[in-house]
Design a protein that fits this description.
The complex is a heterodimer.
Chain A lengths: L2 E6 L2 E6 L6 H8 L19 E3 L2 E3 L14 E3 L15 H8 L9 H18 L5 H5 L10 H14 L2
Parallel strand pairs in A: 1-5
Antiparallel strand pairs in A: 1-2, 3-4, 3-5
Chain B lengths: L25 E3 L2 E7 L5 E5 L17 H4 L2 H8 L6 E6 L5 E5 L8 H13 L6 E5 L17 H28 L7 E3 L2 E3 L5 E3 H7 L6 E6 L18 H6 L14 E6 L7 E5 L2 H5 L4 E7 L2 E6 L2 H10 L2 E4 L8 H11 L13 E9 L2 E2 L7 E6 L4 E5 L4 H12 L6 E5 L13 H13 L3 E4 L4 H5 L2 E2 L2 E10 L2 E12 L8 H8 L11 H9 L8 E9 L13 H18 L4 H8 L3 H13 L10 E10 L2 E10 L2 H4 L12 E10 L6 H20 L5 E2 L2 E2 L18 E6 L13 H18 L5 E2 L30
Parallel strand pairs in B: 5-6, 11-21, 16-32, 19-20, 24-25, 28-31
Antiparallel strand pairs in B: 1-2, 2-3, 2-10, 3-4, 4-5, 7-8, 8-9, 11-14, 12-15, 13-14, 16-23, 17-22, 18-19, 18-21, 23-24, 26-27, 27-28, 29-30
Helix pairs in contact in B: 3-4, 4-5, 10-11, 15-20, 19-20
Classes of the chains: A alpha+beta, B alpha+beta.
Chain lengths: ~160, ~775
């Protein structure tokens, strides 16, 4: 069985699993990292959104064998560790202050998508627009979309 | 049977004296009996049926049944004879524990329950731990989460238990300090006297513990002293949700419960004949077990990904489903044949008639968390973990399926990743138990997303027709005939209803269960002369259920579209017309609120229009105003593949009166979420039936509301209410929102929609294959980072 090595939430991990198993299942079923959720398995619902090397991606659509040993995978569990302060990431705090979650199932993916969006805008050197919020593909079946938008605006202001 | 009423206005019968004593089991104004239970620490209990408001016996004039006695009353009364104690425990660390016999699915009842306990007990909300009770068969039908009934039915008993705990703690402190309880002050879980003595709730809990069960009278805190109830409070599980620590059924780590999935038939409810390549499947990487069950071929593997691979490799012979050969068109024809006639009585010469006829497509009630359950079935016992809104029934059905007695089956209720009615049934838990038994090992069963719209519970296809007559500025008649594929209510209440029905105040006895639910939920709150709203259901071949708000959204859409037509027929403005004809001042006030804050009547470009609607149900009411942009440049927005844009609501204004508000923050969230459901029902989300199969297989086919459909502006106004009863919130906004959007669409386009959602006629996706029944996960995810 091939050994798969990558960096997960700041630590190097090695797993014995076939190359073609999608990373989502390696995280959830083999490593017990259950923050990224299953909602479709075909990169549509975005519930599993996590970061690879600081950019949003969906582990349900990545065979684990495609990861390099120095690829840094960050799930919601590792998000607080990517911000300078102690405690939660500013986007998580914005989520709490806006009381966004209802059932909470999609929210780890929503938060990871939001953080990546703000980072992308920083790279592009521009401010958050309404159209950026419209373009977020993550589904929330409870319909928390309004508070998601408010939280992203607040989180964007507070991310440094 | 026809329910009729005339235009006479009765007093508002929907404000029972629920929260302030006077319920049958109480002992006086705010005085109730509670129980101090035997234990090593303080444990208090209250009967879950306490304070249940009986339907009023003397109503001056009888409008529709739901005005007098609605679904909430039925559920509450159904539980009266059989409900048992719910308990609050005070722990040595001064926290309180409570097991809620309801299911949290995102609607916020864990938070609101903690608030109610904190209020009466005098503890911070953070020190009240509310968990979900496992299946408690002794509660019988008092453990069903549905009909927006949770807070209504549990408010008083929970207050009684918490108030009794506080009273006992204060009495213990009084003995300890040698003083009277009324000279003590309790704050934040610490009791003090004026001399500087103090003791924590934890210390006192042991002293207040009882070795025998005692009945004790207790007074509830007057509402004027509330400091927690009615104040906004964030969810108690929010931190777990945003850190990924919140555990859903799929996240549980149960020893040896490996990932398990089921290969399902191409047709809706088709069944397996047999697997032809079992040996090959068993040799696949990671696969440990394969077993045939009633619903398909189950496979267990090290990862869900390997289950998907195995399902895709299976060669299975299938039996057709019960709807073999049927399509939307044939089912619609069947509904048309079953429609009850509209029978307009003699009306004056010169009266105008307006008619509405709307078809509503099948819709999927699936949550984002697909059906999932963990089951560990042993030869003589079984343990199941799942999100279940009726866990006792699931327990009974699992016991039945396994041939075990009910007491051998332990059913643990896990917080659900949404429900929307989908988890009323124990389909997933029963299937998991059957698979575990067939394989002889624990399983973590998950439905693939593709299984959900194709095999999961659906909101039934239906038609709703209305004929109304108007003359001399008055509406003389309003007849509505709702014809639907059968809604499955087998999750319960049925037997109890049969018992209760004979005693119902308005003589519901003798009606079928669906008709009863229909009449118990539908209230047309207008003075429209002779009003009849009737249901007829046909065809039980589909897997259906009570999707969020059951019949109401479809009924409300057809009714409110008709109200707009009536307004036009008499040359009146839609808001003014409603204000003129509404029976209830609470509804009028909500409507005035949205009209004011939504600037009703303001000038808008051609192709953009406002729409307004009201709805009254669950002891409350809502009004919604929207602005809908139907201009070509908006409708044809191209946001890439898998993206249905269409008309966009640019503003939504919602007003809600639910009576006593426990948590305004949570209520606002339910209004926002309910709006998104209503929006999807009218504009985007449906299932297409073709040759016995549903075409939709994922979120790129089933177009639930997405960010690009969300109104940039959403206002929620919570009305000051005279009612002191906590009404239902979880469903209240859905029908009103669906109707307001439909009315706006009709006004923006000049065409009343006749088939909803409006995009149902166009299949804007390529259906995924049916064999194999699940799609392979993509492998290009690293090319799609952003």
């Amino acid at each position: 069985m091939p050994k798969q090595t990558f960096v997960l939430n700041g630590r190097t991990v090695t797993v014995d699993v076939a190359d073609d198993v999608r990373l989502l299942w390696v995280l959830r079923d083999l490593l017990g990292v259950t923050g990224p959720k299953y909602g479709c398995g075909i990169n549509v619902c975005k519930a599993c959104t996590s970061h690879i090397n600081g950019k949003a991606f969906n582990p349900c659509a990545v065979p684990v064998g495609k990861l390099k040993a120095d690829d840094e995978v960050t799930t919601i569990e590792g998000l607080p560790g990517t911000s300078s302060g102690s405690g939660l990431h500013p986007m998580q705090r914005a989520w709490l202050e806006n009381d966004v979650s209802q059932c909470g199932y999609c929210q780890p993916g929503q938060i990871m998508a939001a953080v990546a969006l703000v980072k992308r805008l920083r790279r592009e050197g521009r401010a958050l627009r309404e159209s950026d919020l419209d373009g977020i593909r993550n589904i929330c079946r409870c319909g928390t979309y309004v508070r998601i938008r408010e939280a992203i605006e607040q989180g964007a202001r507070e991310m440094r | 049977m026809t329910i009729q009423h005339d235009r006479s206005i009765g007093s508002d019968p929907t404000a029972p004296d629920g929260g302030s004593g006077g319920g049958g089991a109480g002992v006086g104004r705010r005085g109730f009996l509670g129980y101090v239970l035997a234990g090593s620490t303080l444990v208090v209990g209250a009967d879950l049926s306490l304070g249940a408001p009986r339907a009023a016996a003397a109503i001056p004039s009888a409008p529709q049944i739901a005005d007098l006695y609605d679904l909430e009353d039925l559920q509450t009364d159904s539980a009266l004879a059989t409900s048992q104690l719910i308990t609050v425990t005070i722990n040595p660390d001064s926290t309180a524990n409570f097991q809620l016999p309801r299911m949290e699915v995102g609607q916020g009842i864990v938070t609101s329950t903690a608030m109610i306990i904190a209020e009466e007990l005098g503890l911070p909300v953070s020190k009240v731990k509310v968990t979900l009770a496992p299946a408690r068969p002794e509660l019988v039908f008092n453990q069903l989460t549905g009909g927006s009934n949770s807070t209504f039915s549990t408010y008083t008993p929970i207050r009684v238990a918490a108030a009794l705990a506080r009273q006992q703690l204060m009495d213990a402190a009084a003995i300890l300090f040698g003083t009277n309880a009324d000279r003590l002050i309790a704050t934040g879980g610490v009791v003090r006297d004026t001399l500087g003595n103090q003791a924590t709730f934890g210390d006192l809990a042991v002293k207040a513990a009882s070795s025998v069960v005692r009945a004790v009278e207790v007074q509830l805190r007057p509402e004027s002293e509330f400091t927690v109830i009615g104040k906004p409070h964030n969810r108690t599980d929010a931190r777990d949700a945003v850190t990924g620590e919140k555990k859903f059924a799929m996240d549980l780590d149960i020893p040896n419960a490996l990932p398990t999935m089921v290969c399902r038939a191409p047709q809706h409810r088709g069944t397996p004949r047999g697997l032809r390549n079992r040996a090959e499947i068993l040799r696949m990487p990671g696969v440990t077990h394969v077993a045939q069950v009633e619903t398909g071929i189950a496979v267990r593997a090290q990862t869900f990904g390997q289950c998907i691979d195995a399902i895709r490799a299976m060669k299975v012979d299938w039996n057709p489903g019960p709807a073999d050969g049927e399509s939307d068109a044939t089912i619609l024809a069947e509904l048309r044949r079953a429609e009850l006639p509209l029978v307009v009585p003699k009306i004056p010469v010169g009266a105008k008639t307006v008619e509405t006829d709307v078809v509503f497509a099948f819709r999927s009630s699936a949550a984002l968390e697909p059906y999932c359950a963990v089951a560990d079935v042993r030869p003589d016992s079984a343990t199941v973990w799942a999100g279940l809104k009726v866990p006792i029934l699931a327990q009974q059905n699992i016991a039945l399926a396994l041939g075990m007695s009910q007491d051998k089956v332990k059913v643990n209720v896990v917080m659900g990743g949404g429900s929307f009615g989908h988890k009323l049934f124990g389909d997933h838990a029963i299937e998991a138990a059957q698979v575990s038994r067939a394989m002889g090992v624990p399983v973590k069963l998950m439905w693939h997303r593709a299984d959900e719209p194709r095999q999961g519970r659906l909101h039934p296809m239906c038609t709703s027709r209305v004929r109304a007559t108007v003359a001399g500025g008055q509406v003389l008649t309003f007849e509505q005939r709702h014809t639907s594929v059968v809604t499955d209510f087998s999750h319960g209440l049925g037997e109890i209803l049969t018992q209760t029905a004979d005693e119902l105040p308005t003589g519901l006895g003798g009606l079928g269960f669906s008709q009863s639910i229909f009449l118990l939920t539908q209230q047309l709150p207008y003075n429209f002369g002779l009003v009849t709203q009737l249901l007829n259901e046909v065809d039980d071949r589909f897997s259906t259920g009570s999707m969020r708000n059951i019949y109401s959204p479809d009924v409300a859409v057809a009714a409110e579209l008709t109200v707009d037509k009536l307004a036009a027929a008499v040359g009146s403005d839609p808001v003014q017309f409603r204000l003129d004809f509404l029976k209830d001042e609470r509804v009028r006030a909500a409507l005035r609120t949205v009209a004011k804050h939504g600037k009703w009547g303001r000038r808008l470009p051609k192709g953009v229009a406002q729409g307004v609607a009201i709805h009254k149900e669950y002891k409350g009411c809502t009004a919604v105003l929207v602005e809908l942009d139907c201009r070509p440049q908006t409708v044809k927005r191209d946001l890439g593949p898998e993206t249905v844009t269409g008309p966009r609501v640019t503003k939504a204004v919602i007003a809600v009166d639910v009576g006593l508000v426990i948590n305004p923050r949570g209520l606002e969230a339910q209004m926002q979420g309910g709006f998104m459901d209503g929006l999807a029902l009218t504009l985007t989300s449906s299932c297409h039936l073709r040759d016995g199969r549903f075409l939709e297989a994922s979120w790129d086919n089933y177009f639930y509301t997405r960010q690009w459909n969300v109104p940039p502006e959403v206002q929620v106004h919570i009305m000051e209410s005279d009612s002191r009863t906590p009404g239902g919130a979880g469903e209240a906004a859905v029908g009103t929102s669906a109707a307001a959007v439909a009315c706006a669409y009709a006004r923006a386009t000049g065409t009343t929609p006749s088939y909803l959602p409006i995009n149902h006629g166009e299949i804007s996706f390529r259906p995924k294959p049916f064999i194999p029944p699940v799609p392979q996960s993509p492998s290009n995810g690293l090319q799609r980072t952003n």
